Amino acid sequence: DQQVKQNSPSLSVQEGRISILNCDYTNSMFDYFLWYKKYPAEGPTFLISISSIKDKNEDGRFTVFLNKSAKHLSLHIVPSQPGDSAVYFCAANYNAGNMLTFGGGTRLMVKP
Amino acid sequence: DADVTQTPRNRITKTGKRIMLECSQTKGHDRMYWYRQDPGLGLQLIYYSFDVKDINKGEISDGYSVSRQAQAKFSLSLESAIPNQTALYFCATSDPGGSNTGELFFGEGSRLTVL
């Protein structure tokens, strides 16, 4: 039973538009959420994170929103660029541990 | 040079063979992990180690074993490889002394194909 789910395996967006990647979780103990980005033939790299005490965290073009009541978070990329084309993984942990639980990933394609 | 290095990057082997994937890191982190990536399933934890004398099973440890030879080295072994172990394997490290947010630093991956 996957505790972290990314229900959209892929997403295609036009350059300059907004990309919204979604993630749902079931474990109410999760208190920290992270997004990782993965290019082909490379390992995942950390992108942005959010603590459960916040509902929004912004870093440049990337914003993560957390809705605890719905157990849902989303990653917004504005504006989207072709270089953003990658697989994005949502991950969660709790109790200040390092045992991340990952979602299945969403492949984002940004078309020029 | 990469902070987390995995060898080999690609390996094709036959069913029943023993395979070892090696990981070394220069980040000075105590914690090391082995993950497996399958399409649609994300990254699943195989084994993890919080220091040289500590080894713990993850979600999918059956069919795998690990060895933590030193703080900087963590190897994953498949004693008798089977085709459903065909996957992309990632080693990762983390630093509990930092912000303790759970951020992992990944190697570039080892693609294993078992025929």
What do you see in this structure?
The complex is a heterodimer of chains A (112) and B (115). With 112 residues, chain A is mainly beta. Chain A has strands at 4-5, 10-14, 19-25, 32-38, 45-51, 56-59, 62-67, 72-77, 86-93, 101-102, 106-111. In chain A, a hairpin with a 2-residue loop joins strand 6 and strand 7. The mean pLDDT of chain A is 94. Chain B is mostly beta strands and 115 residues long. Chain B has no helices and 11 strands. In chain B, strands 2, 4, 5, 6, 9, 10 and 11 form a 7-stranded mixed β-sheet that branches. Chain B has a 4-stranded antiparallel β-sheet with strand order 1-3-8-7, with no helix packed on it. The A-B interface holds A 2, 4, 6, 9, 32, 34, 36, 41-46, 49, 51, 89, 91, 93, 96-100, 102-105 and B 4, 31, 35, 40-45, 48, 90, 92, 94, 96, 100-109.
Order of helices and strands of chain B: EEEEEEEEEEE
Distance between the termini of chain B: 32 Å
Provide the residue-averaged pLDDT of chain B.
92
Number of DSSP-assigned strands of chain A = 11
Specify the overall morphology of chain B.
globular
Order of helices and strands of chain A: EEEEEEEEEEE
Poorly predicted sequence stretches spanning 5 or more consecutive residues of chain B: none
How many DSSP-defined strands of chain B? 11
Strand content of chain B: over 45%
Helix content of chain B: under 10%
Helix content of chain A: under 10%
